[in-house]
Structure prediction request, 322 residues.
Amino acid sequence: MLEDSFGRRFHYLRLSITEACNFRCQYCLPDGYKGPSDDAFMALPEITTLVKTFAALGTSKVRITGGEPSLRRDFVEVIEVCKATEGVNKVATTTHGARLKRDAKSWKQAGLDQINVSIDSLDPRQFADITGHNKLTAILDGIDVALQEELTVKVNTVFLKDYAGKQLHEFKQWLKHTPVTLRFIELMETGDHPRFFKQQHLSGGPVKTELLSEGWQPVIRTKDAGPAEEFFHPEYAGRIGLIMPYSKDFCQSCNRLRVAANGKLHLCLFSEQGIDIRPYLKNGDVPGLMAFLQQLLGKKHATHYLHDGITGATSHLAMLGG
Ligand code: SAM
Prediction:
């Protein structure tokens, strides 16, 4: 079992398979991706060793992320490897969703259980303004296909000051009839975007107060749940979640570890540096990596230091997958 010195247990691996993304979200890669090519990233046999090792230490849920994971040519094989690993019972991915309409069926067949699609606005013009791509309609069609394929669908919406009023209203209307869980994510500060953060960050606290006053009720957390506090309402087909990394005690329920596409383990989304585990992966050394991981967990800090504006080595979230 992976357990740290604060008694937190880690069932959930966030596995980034590429840093590349073809979207240009204002808060992430506004000037587009300019990093290394795909062959710098972990190859399928390395990913296989990685997932096997984490599963042997109690990981039951793997989220495949990026960059944009669906840009990897072997994305379907990565899903298959995760799903085939003994001990892993849930495979999820986070995607911009532009390939969903075409590929949801093959991802499901490969073993995918859940997708999180990032949609920051339901207004096509605002969506294009935020992401640099006029693809909202295609992505919403993709969500319909994913639901038909019986994938669990969650939507990630970064809460931004310039759009917040409209975001809340439009998404609530949409959730009346759409059976997805929408999660508002508080904008987090990253090394590349301190000014954007100061201009656009909003606390999710008032949204929680509003939801509770409207009769939304808290959903009980499962052991592999992500960071969202989720709410349901009998009159809505969908649910709403809030991810509030700046709220008190956010890190107490941390159950996640992250491995970047370059094979570095990050004990926290905002840690000072990644720890190189690639030599173990290259050698297929499962027992060696198990021992190394158990020893490293003692170094995990109680909390991130975002409140002090300390963003660690994370210059933007595409490098780690959020
Ligand atoms: N390309 C995929 C996508 O579009 O969802 C996966 C990678 S993306 C980095 C993962 C998630 O992080 C997305 O939902 C995105 O909106 C969120 N994200 C990126 N930068 C963020 C920031 N500074 N604060 C909060 N969320 C952020």
In short: The first strand starts at residue 12 and ends at 16. The chain has a mean pLDDT of 94. The chain has one domain: 12-319.
